[in-house]
């Protein structure tokens, strides 16, 4: 069994709860409230900027020219592809990126940035892998369900589903998985243990990210300025 398959086995209970979460269940059926999806897409736009920075940090730590190029490409492709998706929904909803980080988004992005910058190269890779991999699996599962309906073309979240279930995105994920396996080959048992812990932490934060969008999470305690708004 490859190292990444061992990583996936470690998060299977978390992934099952991600799929079962009302956010993803309602997104699949098209019944997710628009305000919850708007909350999500704005937080995802904030997340994306820090995700790209974390990928760039790993490029600076990479040990081979090929790995440097790959992480630079990951960073660029994440910005280009996902920003286009965000801009589509911003235009559709006639809104802008007019929010600050939610508590869960703040926690996730700062965990990624801290791990990419302060921990080992291997741990940084493992911490960023769930965002790639979990989104593909969720996208594929939702696409399989949603596309069976005759009115799929009218699905309010079709663009989101199509992107994360696309062959292009899947190929990108495969590259990140293969890179993780390649780096793990020479890793010590301790490093592999730390990589697994990082992978699990980020997977839990993935669940929290969707949960925070479903709850439209706000910072507590509420400040007077928030009440006035």
From TrEMBL:
Its EC number is 3.5.99.2. It is an enzyme of class 3 (hydrolase). Pathway: Cofactor biosynthesis; thiamine diphosphate biosynthesis. Pfam families: TENA_THI-4. NCBIfam families: salvage_TenA. Catalyzes an amino-pyrimidine hydrolysis reaction at the C5' of the pyrimidine moiety of thiamine compounds, a reaction that is part of a thiamine salvage pathway. This is Aminopyrimidine aminohydrolase. The gene is tenA.
């Amino acid at each position: 069994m490859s190292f990444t398959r061992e990583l996936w086995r470690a998060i299977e209970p978390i992934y099952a709860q991600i799929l079962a979460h009302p956010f993803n269940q309602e997104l699949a059926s098209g019944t997710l409230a628009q305000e919850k999806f708007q909350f999500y897409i704005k937080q995802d736009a904030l997340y994306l900027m820090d995700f790209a920075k974390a990928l760039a940090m790993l490029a600076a730590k990479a040990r081979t020219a090929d790995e440097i190029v790959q992480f630079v490409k990951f960073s660029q492709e994440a910005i280009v592809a996902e920003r286009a998706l965000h801009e589509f929904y911003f235009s559709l909803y006639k809104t802008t990126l007019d929010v600050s980080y939610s508590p869960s988004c703040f926690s996730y992005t700062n965990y990624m940035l801290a791990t990419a910058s302060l921990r080992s190269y291997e741990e940084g890779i493992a911490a960023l892998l769930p965002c790639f991999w979990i989104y593909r699996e969720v996208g594929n599962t939702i696409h399989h369900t949603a596309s069976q309906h005759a009115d799929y073309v009218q699905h309010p979240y079709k663009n989101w589903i199509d992107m994360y279930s696309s062959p292009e995105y899947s190929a990108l994920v495969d590259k990140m998985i293969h890179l993780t396996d390649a780096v793990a080959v020479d890793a010590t048992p301790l490093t592999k243990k730390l990589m697994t812990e990082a992978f699990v932490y980020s997977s839990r934060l993935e669940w929290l990210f969707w949960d925070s969008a479903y709850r439209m999470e706000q910072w507590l305690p509420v400040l007077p300025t928030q009440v006035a708004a």
